[in-house]
Amino acid sequence: MSAPVDGSFVEVDTVGGRFQMISGDTSKSSHQCPHHAHSHHKPCSNCGHHSHEGQQLPISPEDSLLNSIRSHWIIMPFVLLFIVKLAVVHSTGLWVVICLFVCFFYLNKRLTNATQGFEPPIYALAASIIICASVVFMHYVWVFRENEIYLGLICFPNKIPSDDWVSLLWAVIVVDFSLKIFTMFVKSLLIFLSSKSMRISTRSVVLVWIEFISQVYRNIPPAVSWFRHLSADSSPADPQSLGSRIFFCILYGLLKLFACGMLISNMRPIFSPRTFAPPYQTNYAMSTGDEEMCTLCFESFSKTVAVLGCNHKFCRDCVDRWLIHFNECPLCSHNLGSDFKAWRDGSTSALVQFF
After folding, report:
1. Which among 105, 108, 344, 353 has a CA at the least distance from the CA of 217?
2. Does the keyword Cell division feature in the UniProt annotation (predicted)?
3. Is the pTM above the cut of 0.70?
4. Which residues pair with 175 in a beta bridge?
């Protein structure tokens, strides 16, 4: 007699539970598993499903970053608006920097081609003369005359107000590119005049020293402008102003000395005679047959033949051009000495001395 009663109780309990679920009642009975009515001693496998329904999956860092970017996208139009506004206000100065940048890379390419014999040196010389004339015109006639920015070329202060750091930064960039272009003019003149009178290896040494002197000198003009800016007297009545200006100037001077020391340390190999010593022996009296050819130019050996340490022979000019970029034998990859190959091709550093 007890079994029907239990069954009817289970049925009523189940219907009641369903009614509570439909009515939206969130009482404890609505979440009970029907299987509990049959036995309280058997584990319910379906209860685990209900216990994990409310848990959320963890958000990955990529999704979090993407959501953050999406939530801040609205600021991008405002940033672009202010950038365009600055570009319009300083349009002349911006176009000047862009033109100097393009001229620098164009002339740098002409120089490397002339050094390696890919094109006549007269092309690089003509391009450097035209670009240098344009820079001189801008300094003395057109854009830079009002503030006398050309004084920065000889490490003198210009007429830009010392508290206008944006204009000072622009003047520093202009002076740096101008000095680079003048350096490339000297290099192009050297390549043109020494194309037949100077050996390629000797010319490479001179080009490296010109670049080293140029980089050291280009560290000085920015210091003049930034010392003016850091020592500007913004509040003469404040006794702490003098101390802060002295502190900032000393700190900048120490950082500048450290930067110059790093530059000299990186170029230290040029002070060693072994760096530029030719890694071959020259044979002037060598008699070669018509069947022997240089494996670099695929032509008959010239009058001067270079014999490497691995006994491979090449034309001396071919080996000198090869050694501008490489430090191993073209045939057997035998090491030929110094690893310092920077600036031997007549190129100029693209690093802008902002500070």
Report:
1. 353
2. no
3. yes
4. none
